[in-house]
Structure formats: structure tokens, C-alpha cells
Structure prediction request, 330 residues.
Amino acid sequence: MSAPVPPPQNYALRLANGVCAAYAAYNNGSNLTPTLPGYNSFNVIQVYELDPNVFPWSLTAEGEKAAAAAAKAGVAMAGQPAAYASPAGAPPPPCTGPIPVGTPSMGYQLFGFTATANDNSHNIFVLRGTVTMEEAYYDVSGWGTKTACMLPTQGSPHSYGMVNSSLWYFYTQDDLGFKTSLAASCMNAIQATNAQAPNLPWFMGSHSLGGAMLSLAAFDAMASGALTSPPFVMTFGSLHVGDATFAGNYMTNLPTSYRIANLCDFVPSMVSLEPVIYPDPYVHVGIEGTFVWQTWNDWGNHSLANIYMPMVQSTTNWNLIKWGPRHYPQ
Prediction:
């Protein structure tokens, strides 16, 4: 089988810049108005968090393991989330937004946005990755505890496979209708942008936790009819979300999906807090594009600003990405 044809580099660059803008607009709890050169008519995507600075409920034995893992990896400097941490005296990393950054508090957190290109060539949908401790809990919990993917915005939903229960809860939870779920916020933003700029193709991008949420949201939008043709989807360093049945159903509906992953990035390989017996119980979606960039720092290897963006900004780096499965000697 021949290698997949690489997607256009300029598509990847647009989406990486968009995800960076989503991080900057969130600004660690400031929830600023998104801006992105070349785009207009922004519609914000939000998720409700009970307390972004702590884990959201009393911890089970699994939760205690999750807490330990998040505490070890999630805070690069005391009092700073990993996404915004930098060495003392160093300038802030790209995608941070205005200085000083905010402090998250209970309520709706900006998680992404939709917008329309100034030349009316396409609409864009982007989601950021993990910043808060509450989000970190969803990153590391629920592995091995799967639930049926009953896409929530359909009139008569049916299961498209099994997905990580914690990631599913993060996408769908609405406090029994008292809060707007991330799922509803995504669909509302898509519909608002479609009303403002109808019949345009969609580019969709995300990083980290946002990759798992985009897998659900893009599939949800197609299955519900919010989108009438498959979008171009690209994730950077995405988490897994579902099993092989989910991945197969996803790719049938969204064939122009790609995922870029640093082989030294631990996040795309996470399927459990404990060793698992292969084959993996979770399967990635999207045609893979992989590369090797070792910084000798777990979060450094996962950085959107310092790893994934340089890979799509530079033609030299872009040409180092291998598209399609890799085969290793036994």
C-alpha cells in the first residue's frame, strides 16, 4: 500500500495558528475575545468547570493515581499551569496571550472558537488543550472504563463504538440541563458560523485534550447534520478517545482527518495509568503524520508552541513528517 498523500502545509499552519489563538484568548482564565489574523466573526466555545484549580470530586483509588500523575507532570512551576510555565526571567512562551495571565475560577472556560476567513474561502473551528487542573483530571482518568458513544446532538442517537468515560463526560456533562455542555457549545458555534457564512468548507484543528474533544465534536456535527460535507480535520499531540469500532465509524464519516504526533510525546500514547496488554484498547482517528523531536522534558515534547508549530511553520521540518503507519523490526 502506498503512503498517504500529505495534507497541504498551509492548512496545517492555519490550524496551528488558530489553536495557538485559542490558548491566548483563554489566557489561563481571563477568557478574552479571540483574535486571529485573517479571520472575522468569532463565536466562542466554552466548557463549564466547577473548580479549575483542583480536581472536581473526591478521588477513588483510580483518581488517586490520576492525581499523582497530574501533580508530577501538570505543574512545571509552582503556581503556574504547564501550558504557561517558563523559567525564571525568561519571556513567556508563545500562545500565552497578554501578561500577566489570568487565574481560573469556577464557571465557563473559553475552550475554543469558530470564525470565518476574511476571503470567505472557509470557516475554522479550533480547540485548545489542557490548562487547568480539572482538565488534567479528565486527561488521566477513565482509561479502561468505556461508555457507548451516543452522539448527543442527534434526534435518535445510537452507539458508534466505545469511548473513554471521563473524556465523554467532559464533552457531554451539562449538570442535568442547568449548564451548557461542551458538546452543545461546539454545535452552537458551528451553527452560528454557518448562519453567518453558509456553504463554506470547514477546517478544524486542536491540541492535546482538545484533540479528543474535536474527534467527538466533528463526528457529532457530521452525524447530526450540522455539517453537510466532511471537514478537513487536523489534531496535534491528541489523546485517544475511542475503541476500534469508534475509530472505524469516525473515519467512514470524516475521511479527510489527520493527526500529527511527536513520537517522543507521551500524550498521544496514553491509554492507561498502568501497563496494558496489546492490542491497545483505544485506537487513534486520522491519518497519522509522525516525527521525532526529543527535548528530554515530558511537557516540552508535547508543546504546541515549541514543537508542533515549528513543524508546520518550516517547510524543512514539514518534509520530515512521515505520513502513514510506521513499521518497526521485531
In short: The chain has nine helices and ten strands. Strands lie at 39-49, 107-117, 123-127, 146-150, 159-164, 202-207, 232-236, 257-262, 287-291, 322-323. The domain at 9-323 is CATH 3.40.50 (Rossmann fold).
